[in-house]
Amino acid sequence: MNSKKENILVVDDNNDMLDLIQRQLKTFNYRTYKASSVNEAIEVLKNTTIDLLISDLNMPEINGMELLKYTDEHYPAIPKLVISGVPSIPSVVCAIKSGALDYLTKPFTSDELYKAIRSSLVKNNLLANDFHSKNEDLYSNIIGKSVHSKNVVEIIERVKDTKATILIEGESGTGKELIARAIHFTSKTAHKPFIAVNCGGIPENLAESELFGHIKGSFTGAIETKTGLFQAASGGTIFLDEIGNTPLSLQIKLLRVIQEKEILRVGATKPEKIDVRIISATNSNLEEMIAKGLFREDLYYRLNVANIKTTPLRERKEDIPLLIKTFIDKYSNEYNKPGIKINEKVTEVLLRYDWPGNIRELENIIQRMIIMSDDLITLNQVPENLKYHIPTSPEILKSLKEYEKEQILKVLAFVNHNKTKAAQILQIDRKTINQKIA
Ligand SMILES: Nc1ncnc2c1ncn2[C@@H]1O[C@H](COP(=O)(O)OP(=O)(O)O)[C@@H](O)[C@H]1O
Ligand SMILES: [Mg+2]
């Protein structure tokens, strides 16, 4: 979602560690590149613009220290963060000497990791001062000058530092997740995790254990005691996406969690207190679902203390030009086609289209057109279904004859049915106007 997301390269020979760090970095809104050896890491460095290197020291074959030296030599601007299991003084000193700025001892908490990353990035002036520039990025990510976009930013400002639950409603692709992230990452708890869960995506029999955790041996397959996503988001935000797809059996459990502010792991007898902000999102009409008995009304009210409704793109077409510009900038960079232009005719087609897939669809189409063009996007690159699209707005579905009739009647009414004056205004002669009226 964030075109200015920092790219972080993580190097560790232990794949579990790599996955763990990647998951944590994702919740902090960074983009992760993984490498399990120094050679792999060097390949990534050669092909990608990396903003921060996080590396283990003890690795078989080539030691992490070699990678630090290599990076220092070839990419001196990249800050380095060393993570290591053996916190021996000599290795620390050595790491610092070789240019590593920060050092984190395994095991570390996700909080410690976040602070170390921020501090490395800040020291390297990638971030002017801590959260500030990142926050601005997140707002500038919500592109739009329409009343809709302004309203959204205003609501975010109001709710971000409260504990209120927030329900975001709107069609698919209208930016619900983007808004949820903006709320979290501009709030005071931005340094805590943001965890997104697709409520319809977890099989019903696993959902409870995924969300709330379980106790070792509580069911077949529960080999270890497991922390649920609610606890993993502790202090931060849990984003319940597609909340309308939550099975009824789970809805009642969610309700309990919100009311009691505690969770019960599967197989546990004692509940545990939790402190998380809950943001949910849906593209279905929950009120209709309530009427049909598919969604609990009490849960709906609990989730919906603050409400944000996103507007479909076709109802705020004034945002389209700026979105086009933003996505062209973003993808011309990504595909190395700087200065690529868009033909005015193409913009017209894009403005006429109804965008059933909303901003996601617009973004995909721009991306595709950039891939297919050289330095100018022309009608040739526009997908057929867009080119020959007839807008559903009734205003435009009129024949010339109908327009003509309407215009003549309007003018006649304006001049109190004085046909001579009407003919003058319409720039036709009296004979023609008589014919038309007939
Ligand atoms: N106002 C906006 N400005 C820029 N990009 C946006 C905006 N709204 C949505 N997007 C982009 O559109 C895509 C879909 O947004 P997303 O938040 O996933 O939508 P939803 O959750 O409603 O389906 C994402 O790539 C997102 O970055
Ligand atoms: Mg979504």
Automatic annotation (TrEMBL):
PROSITE patterns linked to this entry: RESPONSE_REGULATORY, SIGMA54_INTERACT_1, SIGMA54_INTERACT_2, SIGMA54_INTERACT_3, SIGMA54_INTERACT_4
Span of domain Sigma-54 factor interaction: 142-371
CDD domains according to UniProt: AAA, REC
Response regulatory domain segment(s): 7-121
Gene3D superfamilies named among the record's database cross-references: 1.10.8.60, 3.40.50.2300, Homeodomain-like, P-loop containing nucleotide triphosphate hydrolases
Modified residues (4-aspartylphosphate): D56
Domain of life where this protein originates: Bacteria
Keywords: ATP-binding, DNA-binding, Nucleotide-binding, Phosphoprotein, Transcription, Transcription regulation
InterPro entries referenced in this protein's UniProt entry, alphabetically: AAA+_ATPase, AAA_lid_NorR, CheY-like_superfamily, Homeodomain-like_sf, HTH_Fis, P-loop_NTPase, Sig_transdc_resp-reg_receiver, Sigma_54_int
Protein name as annotated: Sigma-54 dependent transcriptional regulator
